[in-house]
Structure formats: structure tokens, C-alpha cells
Amino acid sequence: FERLSNPPEMAGTAIMITAFIGVIINGVSAFLFYKGQQTDINIKGAFLHLLLDALVSVGVIVSGAIMYFTGWYIADPISSFMVGIVILFSTWGLLKESVKLILDGVPQNINQAHIQQLIEQHPMVESVHHLHIWALSSAQNALTAHLVLKECITLKEFMIIKAELKHTLSHEGITHSTFEIDTENCHCKEENCN
User: Fold this and answer.
1) In angstroms, how far is CA 114 from the centroid of its own chain?
2) Is 110 helix (H, G, I), strand (E, B) or coil?
3) 3-class DSSP state for residue 182?
4) What is the DSSP pairing of strand 176-182 with strand 141-149?
5) How confident is the model over 17-28, as pLDDT tens digits?
């Protein structure tokens, strides 16, 4: 705010040259992180940091050019405010994703209702409850659920069902799943319900 009311004189040429070097270095570095940032939150943070540094340098080049050609030194604090606003909006999604990861929230790319529907489509599953989905990391998701089966089965049969469900869920981005059986529909003799 002090710089807005009393902007200091600055050497526009030196600022533009330095900022141009910053754009190249940060732009190339951000490009190297581009692929990994789509699957890993840590790489995404580094990618955004480098990309925003490049954007800051572009803002500095623009304000340096304005100061050099017009002598309008207030361009520097104005561009600083604009860059700050862009940084705030572009990192908001990363902050939300990080908080979800810390609090074991359902990952953004997972639709819990769809997952429940997929599990309940299995011919042996009556219903699902106590379904919890959370991120183990930015690349791995976990699931726990209680299954009510349509009929009493053996442990061997349950292992087959579990393998089928795990395979289905792996296509939905869930790499680790744990299932517990509720036996409310198991009305057979105890020795047959193992």
C-alpha cells in the first residue's frame, strides 16, 4: 500500500532482463513437472509453484516495460496485486485437495454413490453400508465396507467375490479395499456359514 501511494523509481530494463530469465527457467522447470502433477499432489504443488513463479516474472516484464516506456512506476505495485490474486485463485484447489487428504475425505475424483452402486451390482451382494473411501496418498485410494450378502456362502466363495470386487474397484482408482461380511441373511447351519 505504501508503494501504491509513493511508487519508487525502478530500472525497467534491468527488471525486464532478470524477469525474462526467470520466465525461461521457471517455464522449462514447470514443463518438466507437467505430466506428474496430474497424479501426485506433491508434484502438483511443485508444478504450480514453478508455473506461478513464471507468471510472476511475466507480470514483472509487463510492469517493467510500462515503467521503461511511460515512467508510470505505479505499474509495479499494481502488477504485484494482480499476481497475488491469480496465485490465490490458482492454489485454492490445491489447498482444498490437501485438506481433504489430511482429513481422510473422499478424493475429488471418486464418486462415492457410484462406487456403492458398483458394489451392489455384484450378483451376490444384497446391500452395502459403512462405506468409507479415503486417500492413502495422492496416487492411492482405500475403501472399507460392510457387505450384506444375498445368501450364506463359504469363506472360499467369499474370497472369489472379494477378488471380483477388488478388480472392479481397481478400475475406479481404488487400489486398496477391505470388506467385512454381515451375516444377517445367513440362515443356514453354523458349520455351513464359514
Assistant:
1) 19
2) coil
3) strand
4) parallel
5) 888 999 999 999
What are phi and psi for residue 152, nearest 5 degrees?
A: -70, 135
Strand 141-149 and strand 125-135: the pairing is antiparallel
Measuring CA to CA, which residue among 115, 183, 122 is closest to residue 154? 183
Closest CA to 148 of 116, 118, 124: 124
Tell me if the pTM is above 0.85.
no
When computed from its CA atoms, the radius of gyration of the chain, rounded to whole angstroms, is 27
Q: Which residues of the chain have pLDDT under 70?
A: 101, 104, 183-194
Strands (E), 27-140: 125-135
Q: Distances from the Cα of 15 to the Cαs of 21, 53, 60, 138, 172, in angstroms? A: 10, 15, 7, 38, 49
